[in-house]
Amino acid sequence: MPSPGESLPKLRQAHVSDHSTLVLCVQRWWGDSRTPELSRLLPRLFLQYFATTSLVAEDEQGIRAFLVGFHSADDERSAYIHFVGVDPRLRGRGLARELYSAFFRRAAAAGRREVRAITSPGNTGSLAFHRAMGFALEEGNRRIDGLPVHTDYDGPGEHRVCFRKTLVDEPSAPASTR
Q1: Report field, pTM of the whole predicted structure over 0.85
Q2: Is 84 helix (H, G, I), strand (E, B) or coil?
Q3: Is 151 exposed, middle or buried, given 0-12, 13-18 or 19+ CB atoms closer than 10 A?
Q4: DSSP state string for 104-157
Q5: Are 137 and 147 in contact (CB under 8 A)?
Q6: Residues 18-39: pLDDT tens digits?
Q7: Rounded distance between C-alpha atoms, residue 144 and residue 64, angstroms
């Protein structure tokens, strides 16, 4: 949480013009061997076609966090959170929770009743966060370290843990972010 007198960056809808900045954020915030792989998970098309359902958190220093998500075209009850990033200097202050909560409210207002997400089995931080946000683990076809895993979900050796959160208890809100 922010310290007294300190506020979190303001949320706004993402724009296609944010794409290059978000890619740079991924490169700066992760800055390790995963960076090229992670950057490929964020092609421009997500902001060309799903900007209205994606969010950025911005302050005087620029974009400090983002959530790229969309409403399913094939299942009118579902929404999906694809990629989330938070500036390491702001992690642990509730910014990701605020992004997710805003996404949940907007999805519920649009008639969506569940949100889905995935992560890698070894991403313990993501696993803990999603559980804390009320996501349930979906049963997979294998267990790895006690986790239900969908093997080869994203290709050979690319196993994933799948989550689902029901939004029935989420209050409806206007489509604006705050």
Answers
A1: yes
A2: strand
A3: middle
A4: HHHHHHTT--EEEEEE-TT-HHHHHHHHHTTPEEPP-SEEETTEEEBTTTTSTT
A5: yes
A6: 999 999 999 889 876 565 677 7
A7: 34
